[in-house]
Structures are given as C-alpha cells and as structure tokens.
Amino acid sequence: KQEVTQIPAALSVPEGENLVLNCSFTDSAIYNLQWFRQDPGKGLTSLLLIQSSQREQTSGRLNASLDKSSGRSTLYIAASQPGDSATYLCAVNSGNTPLVFGKGTRLSVIA
Amino acid sequence: DAGVIQSPRHEVTEMGQEVTLRCKPISGHDYLFWYRQTMMRGLELLIYFNNNVPIDDSGMPEDRFSAKMPNASFSTLKIQPSEPRDSAVYFCASSFSGLSGNEQFFGPGTRLTVL
Questions:
Q1: Record: contact B33-A98, CB cut-off 8 A
Q2: How far apart are CA B115 and CA B113, in angstroms?
Q3: What is chain A's pLDDT, residue by residue, as a tens digit (111 residues)?
Q4: Chain B positions in Cβ-Cβ contact with residue A46 (cut-off 8 Å)
Q5: B56 vs A98: CB contact, 8 Å cut-off?
Q6: b vs e for B54-72, b when ≥16 Cβ sit within 10 Å of the residue's Cβ?
C-alpha cells in the first residue's frame, strides 16, 4: 500500500528565503506525482505534475524534482513571498488507483 | 471553464439529519472523485467514478454514506443519518482519463458541521 510522507509538517521562513519542501513515498512504481497548494478554507490548486519519466518540472519560482528510485520528491520555492504562505500537499499516482496524498507542509513566509 | 463547482459551500445541520452535497465536474472530464479532509486524518478518498460508474467505494466510511452520478455533469454525496464525527470539509475533484497521467482539479469544498 502506497504511503506518502511530508516533512516538516510546518515551516516558517523570512521573506526572500529559498526553501525546500520534502515528500517521500514507499512504492517507487508510480506514474506521476503532483504538488498542490491549499489556502485556508479553500480547495486544492494543482501546482506541478511530474511524470515518472521526468526528473523535474518548473513553473515560475517553483521547481519540483522527482527521484523515483529513492522514493522522493522536493518542491523548491525561490525567493519566497508572504503570498506563498499556504499548505503544500504532495500526491502520488501509482497507476490504476487514485492519488495518495501526504498530510502536507504548512508554510508561513514572514514579511 | 468555471472549474469544479460544489454546493453548498457551508452546511450546518443537527445529528440525525440527512445531508446532500453536490458537485458539477469540469465539462469533458471522465473521472470524478469525492474526498474528505480533517485535521486528524488529512485528505481521504471516499469514492470515485469513471464515466458515471462507481469504480471504488472502499473509502466510504459506513453505510450511512452514499454517492451517485446520474450523468456526466452531476454527482451527489449523501449522508443519512449524519453524526458529529462526519464534520469535515468534503471535496469533489475531476480529471480527464485521470488515473494514469492527468491532473486532478478540485472544487472549493463543502464545510460540513454536524451538531
């Protein structure tokens, strides 16, 4: 059974700092991995989707990497801003099964 | 496209009452998912449909929960009777041929409070 873990559960950084969020999964036989952002009281917004054949994806200040063999993904946020404050969730697609989510990392960027 | 639409956004009800949550997926999407999110358990899949057919309902917690998808543009999640432990945010998501590669798009959620 696939399990997804996100560490740390919460993170607080000063504005302008570069930061890395971590995601690990137990079964490396995945099809893709998706990073989501969730603002308080809101739904989930898809940020990046990495296919199993890819090693990274970039969107603006965000860069997600994938290392299937080690069961890890990272989300790198460059030059963090207060508007980046949210919960970031990692989810894994293992094929003919729905996404399995981690519990998220709650990020606070302090101005 | 307006995205995934859910109603109501907030629901407060008393224990024992029937609750119906509604979802309109993105047009053209063939998968629809119902999730529940709580602080303790995080995001849990309840059930998902493919082309309006329920594929896996193993996440439905009890017989009190039921879900239907009468057509490609509408789904309901019903709880009868509701209990305080059902209080959570319920999300609907949809995707196109979603399981093996395509992104899931989430609705804004319904915050359910059962008193």
A1: yes
A2: 6
A3: 899 999 999 999 999 999 999 999 999 999 899 999 999 888 899 999 999 999 999 999 999 999 999 999 999 999 999 999 999 999 998 876 788 999 999 999 999
A4: 103-106
A5: yes
A6: bbbeebbeeeebebebeeb
